[in-house]
């Protein structure tokens, strides 16, 4: 296989950002102004695993963790009212918080694990287990988007970060459990050669592993403007959708 063909089989950080934004837009269109078009939310299932993967990669590639956390915090605050308008049709929607809060909690748990990385194995195991428990409970009581499943998805990409075969298997098994067992939800009935099968809508999220696994660490196009566009896209598109709901 030529080098040119190999390159075509790879995704970059830039292409993953574009895909994630488009998938998320499809899901939020379904959830706001064009309900009933289930194909939109099916496509949208692919967004969160990609974002979760990129949050972990962002943690390890940022030049300043403090600035990384500050950006997430600033845009989490900025996004709150647009999220409330789009998802709750109200300026105040306490029972559901935007996804950036999920990412902030996840980054905090990752940082905690990184602090004990050079400690004895039993300490690392205890902290890792504690992070999972805190993420599980914290995601529920804070009402963040995707609840505990969202935080655990980020932790999956942290604990199984790498390109070895067992990293891929770990990611696939854990995401299967999160999306089929924890989230479950609506299933679609299909008939194939006289046999009836049920496909969980949330299970479509596992398809996102394909572009994630094709990412070999290449950044692709990058600029400060594009970096801040990625952050701004979230509150901006929610604000537009939230306002359109009232027209």
Topology of this protein?
Layout: H1 3-8, H2 13-31, H3 38-44, H4 47-61, H5 65-88, H6 99-115, H7 121-141, H8 147-159, H9 165-183, E1 187-192, E2 195-200, H10 209-213, H11 224-244
Antiparallel strand pairs: 1-2
Helix pairs in contact: 2-3, 2-4, 2-11, 4-8, 5-6, 5-11, 6-7, 6-8, 7-8, 8-9
Task: Jot down its keywords.
two-stranded antiparallel sheet; mainly alpha; globular; 247 residues; disordered N terminus; 68% helix; 2 strands
Proportion of residues in helical segments: 55-70%
Number of helices: 11
The outline comes out as globular
Beta content: under 5%
Q: Poorly predicted ranges (pLDDT <50, ≥5 residues)?
A: 1-7
**Total E-strand runs:** 2
Gyration radius, in Å: 19 Å
What structural category do the secondary elements indicate? mainly alpha
The H/E string reads: HHHHHHHHHEEHH
As laid out across the biggest beta sheet, the strand order is 1-2
Describe the structure.
By secondary structure, the protein is mostly helical. Helix content is 68%, strand content 5%. The protein has 11 helices and 2 strands, in the order αααααααααββαα. A two-stranded antiparallel ribbon has the order 1-2. A hairpin with a 2-residue loop joins strand 1 (187-192) and strand 2. Helix 2 runs antiparallel to helix 4 (47-61) and helix 6 runs parallel beside helix 8.
